[in-house]
Amino acid sequence: MRDWAALHKKELIFFIILFIVASLGFGLGYLAGRDAERAPIIIEKQ
Q1: Phi-psi region of 29 (alpha: psi -120 to 50; beta: other; left: phi over 0)
Q2: Cα dihedral 8/9/14/15 (nearest 10)
Q3: Which pTM was predicted?
Q4: What angle do CA 40, 30, 36 make, to 5 degrees?
Q5: Concatenated DSSP letters for the chain?
C-alpha cells in the first residue's frame, strides 16, 4: 500500500483537495440556502 501511495502521491493530493473544496462548496451553499427563508405561496382563488 505504501508503494502504491508513493507512486500516486500527486493524484492523491489532488483528489483530497478536490474533495475538500467540493465539501466546502456544498456546505456553504446549504447554509446560504437555509438562511433564505421564503414566504409560502398561498393560492386564494381558482
Answers
A1: alpha
A2: 60
A3: 0.65
A4: 35
A5: -HHHHHHTHHHHHHHHHHHHHHHHHHHHHHHHHHH---PPP-----
How far CA 8 is from CA of 15, 16, 24, in Å, comes to 11, 12, 24
- 17, 19, 23, 28 from 31: Cα distances, Å: 21, 18, 12, 5
pLDDT digits (tens, 9 = 90+) for 1-46: 778 888 999 999 999 999 999 999 999 998 888 776 777 788 888 7
State how far the Cα of 7 lies from the Cα of 30, in Å rounded to an integer: 36
